[in-house]
Amino acid sequence: MKTLAPHQQRVVQEKEELDEKLSKLSAFIDSPNFTITVKDENEIARLVCQEEIMKDYSEILAERIAAFK
User: Fold this and answer.
1) Quick one: which H or E segment has residue 21?
2) Is 1 strand, coil or helix?
3) For position 1, what pLDDT does the model report?
4) 32: which DSSP letter?
């Protein structure tokens, strides 16, 4: 495997951090506490939308990282 350039390493780190946040958000949304804690339907919709966008973003970063190799 070739050594990544500094800007490529930052993309890898960005994806790792994003995936960690996404994992925590997904776990919260899938938990029973989600509907207990978040009462506002608009906020529920925003959080679910955020999760979907984060998944898309993670996939794009994965594609970029794959192209580095």
Assistant:
1) helix 6-30
2) coil
3) 54
4) T
User: Does the structure show a pLDDT above 70 at 55?
Assistant: yes
- As a whole number of angstroms, the distance between CA 51 and CA 24 comes to 10
Q: Give the CA-trace dihedral at 18, 24, 29, 34, to 10 degrees.
A: -140
Taking only the tens place, the pLDDT of each residue in 15-49 is 999 999 999 999 999 999 999 999 999 999 999 99
CA distance 24 to 54: 12
Q: Report the C-alpha gap between 37 and 58 in whole angstroms.
A: 26
Tokens of 33: 């506490």
Are residues 29 and 51 in contact, defined by beta-carbon separation less than 8 angstroms? yes
Q: Which amino acid, residue 43?
A: E
